[in-house]
Design a protein that fits this description.
Layout lengths: L11 E10 L5 H11 L5 E16 L1 E3 L7 E3 L3 E18 L5 E10 L5 E6 L6 E13 L1 E8 L4 E8 L1
């Protein structure tokens, strides 16, 4: 049987913030601003749908130079319109105390081709709308820390 390893803590959903990002707003910058404006430092993007003018993502690809044998490829920009089928992710605090997001999504391009990957900040302007729900998590610290085993900065849930 394979080894089972986890790192987790128990908290509770304390607030839910429904929102809409307006046309032209970058999806990562807009979601982070809503978090900052509402004091959300730890939580999740529970749901997000809408449209983008263009999409900028990365995917994990083989890379023998890394500890894991894989790494994110260079960012890919796909011209729009792009339909957002769904976005989810975590809201965490960096070691320097900044609010940050790690988001992945599933998308559909203008030809009906399905795309997915890690959303790159600054390259995803909203076309018509981005409708989302943020869930704040209380009683835990959701951090991003360097992980020696993987040689990556990764999600680290910790007791508050």
């Amino acid at each position: 049987m394979a080894e089972l390893r986890t790192k987790h803590v128990c908290g509770e959903l304390s607030r839910v913030i429904p929102l809409r990002l307006l046309p032209g707003t970058d999806l990562m910058d807009g979601l982070r601003k809503v978090c900052e404006d509402n004091g959300v430092r730890h939580g999740a993007i529970l749901s997000a749908i809408g449209t983008l003018r263009k999409l900028t993502i990365q995917i994990f690809v083989p890379n023998e130079k890394t500890k894991l044998g894989a790494a994110y490829d260079p960012p890919q920009t796909i011209p729009g319109p792009i339909e957002i089928m769904g976005i989810q992710g975590v809201i965490f605090e960096t070691e320097s105390g900044e609010v940050a997001l790690h988001l992945h999504g599933v998308f559909c391009d203008k030809d009906g081709k399905t795309l997915g990957g890690h959303i790159v900040p600054g390259g995803n302007p909203v076309l018509a709308t981005l409708d989302a729900v943020i869930g704040e998590v209380a009683g835990v610290r959701m951090m991003r820390r360097y992980d020696e085993e993987t040689d990556l900065n990764l999600f680290s849930p910790e007791p508050a």
